[in-house]
Design a protein that fits this description.
By secondary structure, the chain is mostly helical. The protein is built from eight helices and no strands.
């Protein structure tokens, strides 16, 4: 009796899954990351130059805040990235716990310092913006306090990883911390709606038209893309360093 031929879709499925997961292996991901990082760094520079030009040379002066409002072209992308990076980091931690993929834990570790950097930048530029706008450098309102808590979560993640010598135990402990800290992200985002704060509401929303000039929005989005490209580039470089430190790839004879 002749056996039925396998379906083309059935035969292609394992190959597609294999191709999709091939670069989860550190030895394959390492050279790929080395090739991709310079392109993301270049894209970050291009988007940053374009965003700074639009934000500081093309965008009009704000009728109420004057020239000081231009800090938003750095402050808002940094604040967005501080939350987005934490969500991505927590996602990698969840994958590491469920699927036990070590590269996921390393990606989370690679993202944490950049997330802390953008959170600190958001807090610092927010203070520079708040002093002439509100008349004070800092207020303990819900948005600022929860953003400060986010910085402590990033720093706690980094400190916890450094405090535990055994990498597997460190990965599990950091994953739990990252997943618990996720509850702070909606608090940051919705704080201006849930509580009465000095911080203004969102000027950009997925469900409504932006309440700013199109050139202002363009400059902000270009700077956000620059931050995004920078984050990817730095994460790729940092995860390569982690792979070398943990002996996951050869230290010599590597071409990329």
């Amino acid at each position: 009796m002749t056996q039925p031929l396998p379906s083309l879709h059935t035969a292609a499925a394992p190959r597609a899954r294999s191709a999709w997961t091939a670069y989860a292996a550190p030895v394959r991901f390492y050279p790929l990351a080395g090739r991709m990082a310079p392109w993301f760094f270049a894209a970050a520079v291009v988007f940053a130059l374009a965003g700074l030009y639009v934000g500081f040379a093309v965008a009009p002066t704000d009728a109420q805040q004057g020239e000081v409002y231009r800090i938003i072209f750095i402050h808002v992308p940094a604040a967005w990235m501080s939350m987005f990076i934490y969500l991505v980091m927590a996602g990698y931690c969840a994958l590491a716990l469920v699927l036990r993929t070590r590269l996921s834990s390393m990606m989370a570790s690679a993202l944490a310092p950049t997330g802390a950097l953008f959170t600190a930048l958001a807090l610092w530029t927010g203070a520079l913006w708040g002093q002439p706008t509100w008349g004070t450098w800092w207020v303990w309102d819900a948005r600022l306090t929860s953003e400060l808590l986010l910085l402590f979560l990033y720093l706690g993640f980094i400190a916890l990883e450094s405090a535990i010598d055994e990498p597997r135990r460190a990965e599990r402990a950091c994953a739990v911390l990252a997943l618990v800290g996720v509850v702070n992200i909606p608090v940051i985002y919705f704080s201006v709606q849930w509580w009465n704060t000095l911080h203004q509401g969102a000027s950009v929303s997925l469900t409504a038209a932006p309440s700013m000039a199109i050139t202002m929005l363009a400059g902000m989005l270009l700077m956000t893309l620059a931050c995004w490209m920078y984050t990817i580039a730095v994460a790729l470089v940092r995860v390569r360093c982690i792979l070398r430190e943990r002996g996951e790839v050869p230290l010599t004879g590597e071409t990329s």
